[in-house]
Amino acid sequence: MVAIKINMSKISLNAIKVLGLNVLTLSLLLLHSLSVFSQQVSHPFLIVKADQFEQHRQKAFYEPWKSMAEDALEITKKGFSEPIMGAYELQDYMGAVALSYILYPEDKDRYAQKVKDLILNNYSKLELTEKRDWGGVVPPMSSFFVAILALDIVYNDLTKEEILACEKLIESQLSKINRKGSWTDVRLGTHGVWDIYKGDRTGPDDAYYNGIMHQITTDGVSPVTIHYAWERVGGGDSRISKAGYMDVLEFTGIDKRYYSNEKLKKFHRWLFSASVNNSKEMAIIGDMLPSQGLKNDLLHARVGNFDEQAAAYTAWFHEEDKKRGHIISYLLPHSKLPYPQYPKSSVYEDGGAFLRESAKNPEGIHTVLYNIKSQDEWHTHQETNGLALSGMGNRLLVNGGRLGEPTRAAALNNTLTIDGKNHDSRLGNGIVEYISREDFDYAMGDAGPALPSAFHNRSMILLHKTSHSKAYVLLLDEVEVEQGQKIISYLHPANESHIDTLLVNESYRAAIDHFPTVAGTALDIHYLTKPERINQSLVASAIPSRYPNHPKHSRLEAIYSPDKSGKNSIVTLLNPMAEAEKVIQLQPSLQENYDAHIIRHKEGAEDLVLSSQTPDRTISFNGLVFKGDFFIHRAIAGDPGFIFVKNATALTGGELEFKAEHKLTLWMKHRFISVLAKENTVLYLKSKTSRSLYIDDKIIENPETEDEWMKIPLPKGTHKLYFK
């Protein structure tokens, strides 16, 4: 039957005569068009079908579905005696009632009536308007998304008159919100699912799809900042139609580009692992506040529809949580979440380096070097090569906060500027080098278009806690500017009181008292490359006009000059610690050609950190002979420790030694070696006659030797070597 849409409230007697309709015909037309929107389909069909109800009831005998079913019933019963007000409260309650309708068929008529009553009596009171900015659009549109799904589910137990009344109410309310405007995805999502319900959309929604894809880099990282990644594509309850619409498109078969999409698979892996610290709090990047947390959002339950590994990370993130009873969390997942998988350090060339200690330790360090290269967005800050840092159960660095232009400036973020000027772009050249091995992580970002008139590579090195050493982070900023320009490095500890000066222009301690999660922690900052001066100030953590009572936080501004060639290599040590802990033992040796620092750990290890100002010269220090830009040497009694060298051709004189024909970056520990070669080269290693050498998992038969050194040709690229 062809659907005829007529507004019966406006049709006149003259119109009836023109149409040639008699009273009997008009009555029949009224009867057949009571549900003018959805005659072409069999309800329900948006996220569940009627013949699937029984299998969903059977699931309720097992966890996690059993707890969700019980939760839905408890919530539903409360709503019969307590008022349900507000968009989000309605959203939660409506989803529970619709689920109870499926799972408890003995009371389905009662629950169907409750859905109808909520739409007519409660949703009619929600104020949808373009005049109230975010509050007039996002919360009510999010809630109506769930209301449409619920109406579809209970459709067959309502009369045609009841259905028509609900549909008219929804149509009237949604018509108040334009399809285009700010908060695009929530508009597209709610209008989109209503279009599908009505039968107006039967093909893919390219505007929505393209909008989702623009919020994910090729490697799966959000360029929209961490908070908005969780709230938008990540499926936050506060904007549920932004991500939930794709599930409707998938279930109906209208557009099946989402669950199999590689970018979305990568995004969900990144979101539920790399984007959060070991305490399961968001890393602070872009528009966000440290007071903003994460919740047990409904759409998280269906992450496995995209990717099994992402689902395992989700299980880790929600290890202590029980899913709520709601149609979204109960009906959408194809299966329950798998066994939890702990996230590890991960690096994304288009996105950043997200390095961490063992996720089993909630106090472990999690540090981010952010560098996106393909796209940005309104909420993105000027923080190319910017940092986020967590440890001891706290976020240790913050940024300019939110919201918008006043908070974006590079000087309000944990990055570097030339003469204090803002970056030319929010994009960089991404992460260009990385090594991730046992208890050690290294990554380097290239500022690229953010500083087009200068050169800035920032290396971030995470040294994990071991039985012989504590954990800390090293930064190496390699900068080249014009003569007369100043290099300014900014750090924003999560401190709002005062930063203690331990040694002027060298060492500082910041108590973590700006929205701390755990009391009694601190961040020690050691400028191993001494700046000309350090300015300390309090700066805004959010737009004062929008957040008038939000406290300011402390900023350290380290100012450097380049050498005669316009270059400088700047080393900074970040040490998360208990507030009462003694300062780390540092023994500096500052020479004309290099800066060296010995770090003595109370656990027994001794680290030598050396940065050369003349990398083409050979440097001798404490029995070691080095030629290159930078190295770390860890010595442990009775153990060879490890070495890490950057842009080097030789390090000899210790238990771990190498030489190379061309500069390379190398990490070596015991029998294991990682090499980054920027060009074809020859690597020389001390001969180990009793062991076989493997390069990239291929055995090297009878490697050539020269004066007790193995001669190993290596092509340009990244390689792993080991002795067996």
Give a concise summary.
The protein has 724 residues and is an alpha+beta fold.
The secondary-structure class comes to alpha+beta
Mean pLDDT: 92
Unreliable spans are 1-21, 23-34
Radius of gyration: 30 Å
Would you identify the CATH H-level superfamily of the largest domain?
Chondroitin AC/alginate lyase
How large is the share of residues in beta strands? 25-35%
**Total of helices:** 15
Range of helix content: 10-25%
Instruction: Give the tally of β-strands.
Output: 31
Q: At the third CATH level, what is the topology name of the largest domain?
A: Glycosyltransferase
- Taken together, the total number of domains comes to 4
How is the biggest beta sheet arranged? 14 strands, antiparallel
CA distance, first residue to last residue: 76 Å
For the record, the CATH class of the largest domain is Mainly Alpha
Report what the structure shows.
- There is one protein chain.
- With 724 residues, this protein is α+β, with helices and mostly antiparallel strands.
- The protein folds into four domains: 1-33, no CATH class; 36-331, Alpha/alpha barrel (Glycosyltransferase); 346-583, Beta-galactosidase, Chain A, domain 5 (Distorted Sandwich), CATH 2.70.98.70; 585-724, no CATH class.
- Helix content is 24%, strand content 28%.
- It contains 15 helices and 31 strands.
- The strands form four sheets. Strands 18, 19, 20, 21, 22, 23, 24, 25, 26, 27, 28, 29, 30 and 31 form a 14-stranded antiparallel sheet that branches.
- Strand 24 and strand 25 (672-677) form a beta hairpin.
- Helix 5 runs antiparallel to helix 6 (108-122).
- Residues 1-21 and 23-34 have low confidence and may be disordered.
- InterPro entries: Chondroitin_lyas.
- This is Heparinase II/III family protein.
